[in-house]
Hints:
Blueprint: H1 2-30, H2 39-58, H3 61-71, H4 78-87, H5 89-103, E1 107-108, E2 113-114, H6 119-192, H7 199-218, E3 224-226, H8 227-245, E4 249-254, E5 263-265, H9 270-279, E6 288-297, E7 300-308, H10 319-332, E8 337-342, E9 347-355, E10 371-372
Helix pairs in contact: 1-2, 2-5, 3-6, 5-6, 6-7, 6-10, 7-8
Amino acid sequence: xxxxxxxxxxxxxxxxxxxxxxxxxxxxxxxxxxxxxxxxxxxxxxxxxxxxxxxxxxxxxxxxxxxxxxxxxxxxxxxxxxxxxxxxxxxxxxxxxxxxxxxxxxxxxxxxxxxxxxxxxxxxxxxxxxxxxxxxxxxxxxxxxxxxxxxxxxxxxxxxxxxxxxxxxxxxxxxxxxxxxxxxxxxxxxxxxxxxxxxxxxxxxxxxxxxxxxxxxxxxxxxxxxxxxxxxxxxxxxxxxxxxxxxxxxxxxxxxxxxxxxxxxxxxxxxxxxxxxxxxxxxxxxxxxxxxxxxxxxxxxxxxxxxxxxxxxxxxxxxxxxxxxxxxxxxxxxxxxxxxxxxxxxxxxxxxxxxxxxxxxxxxxxxxxxxxx
Length: 373
């Protein structure tokens, strides 16, 4: 902590010396201190003069910036605060004049020589320079307030951004925790319907469900995964539903190899597929079909989950789909969308449009063009 403080102080003085030396050098150059006939000697004199004047002013900038930063909270009492810094001009002029008196002894233009220092010459320094020094003091105080204002504004923006990120992360985690019990409840409800009718198949489904849950629990907390990994999880879920519905359920995958390495939100497809099963094969005696397709175009990835509609036409959205829409809003800030449509020929389509973000190239799987009867 002490080393950090010393390093910060050294950096502040280095910046102050650099600024005031540069300003003093430019002012000396402007005033014609450099003599063309004796360029190098006059240039060295200019450097020495700029160094002395710049050093005298550079001493005060860091303390003034420090005091403004420390006592800025007192600005709520406006008049007291202003009076405090106005009165600060008096010691500044006295001390700065004293430093200049020590560093630059009085010079007599007539005799062209330096005179001895005296109390009278010190007072003369104050008389001839207090207006310029007061202006410099005011400029330092104003600059310190501007610096402190922007520093606090930047800190507030950073804290606000960090708070928003933490809030979004916690809400996303809550959505995930909401989605998994919802998915588990619906799956167990499906298994319960088979316990009496086909206990052997029900036991096999329980084993399959345990494998699926193990896969879900083994996933890390990343919000985005590759499409290949997401499809693997969805396929395991559909395998479970295939055991439940048998030949009544037909599944088709149309996934180009070029899309498998793109990133998608974790567990984003399972609610769409679950919705397709619920409004499709689950509601039709003759069974139904589900198709999962992906296309990449113009920097976007579109994933479609299509299904035949059985029974009543679906209306509204369930927990899983509302959850999906909310996650898209948080993760992509309006750059992703979910659209649900039902055509007149009773085909429902859930279109998920995402930015095409690349991940590591995925290995070729068995989703492309596969039809499961």
